[in-house]
Amino acid sequence: MALANTADRYGPVAQALHWATFLLLVGSFSLGLWMVELPLSPLKLRLISYHKWIGVTVFLLVLMRLAWRLYSPPPPLPASVPLWQRRAAKAVHGLIYVLLVTIPLIGWLGSSAKGIPTVYLGLVRLPDLLAKDPELAERLFLVHWVLNKALLVAVGVHVAAALKHHLVDRDEVLVRMLPASLIRKRA
After folding, report:
1. For residues 68 and 60, is the Cβ–Cβ distance under 8 A?
2. CA angle 148, 152, 155 (to 5 degrees)
3. Cβ(76)–Cβ(172) below 8 Å
4. What phi and psi values does residue 25 have, to the nearest 5 degrees?
5. Cα(104)–Cα(15) distance, rounded to whole angstroms?
6. Is 100 helix (H, G, I), strand (E, B) or coil?
7. How far is it, in rounded angstroms, from Cα 132 to Cα 146?
């Protein structure tokens, strides 16, 4: 089985990285929304650690995705896709990648400024990037929150566009990111 992308489909590596990132984002958003409302407790501290672990993992996956894109470029959009949609897709994808790199870094900076170390998977302590500064930490966590809302919007646009291609345009844009085992041939 070929691992690389082809001229008309994403390969299994790109698909695995894409869907793993998606699942981790769903988990991270859910965890973030839940934990922020909890009072300070051992449970909240454990959930914050899990949230950080997911963030670091997303950051690492995105670096892998970017490296994979250099090695195995994505298939071009079908010729039937208008130029404005090609440009919009490129802009939205670019924004998503920038946010997926920036958001975990801002969270890490915020944790450093808060004086709370990030210990990946409870095993690897990441270096603090800033000296303790509670006021700066609050500003960084606000930026983290705002950027996550922007990511939610960008991912929503990405999903809506994929569904529009599948359900309205009836082209192969969405299908090429699905594992072959999930694809049913259209009549």
Report:
1. no
2. 130
3. no
4. -65, -40
5. 22
6. helix
7. 22
Q: At which residue do the structure tokens 């670096």 appear?
A: 63
Residue type, 102: T
Closest listed residue to residue 72, CA positions, set 83, 80, 64: 64
Structure confidence by residue, pLDDT tens digits, 93-138: 999 999 999 999 999 999 999 999 999 999 999 999 999 999 999 9
AA identity, residue 24 = L
The letter for the amino acid at 22 is F
Give the residues of the chain that fall short of pLDDT 70.
1, 184-187
CA distance 117 to 127: 8
Query: For residue 170, is it left (φ>0), alpha (ψ between -120 and 50) or beta?
Result: left
- Amino acid identity for residue 93 in this structure: H
Task: Output the six-digit token pair for 65.
Answer: 């995705």
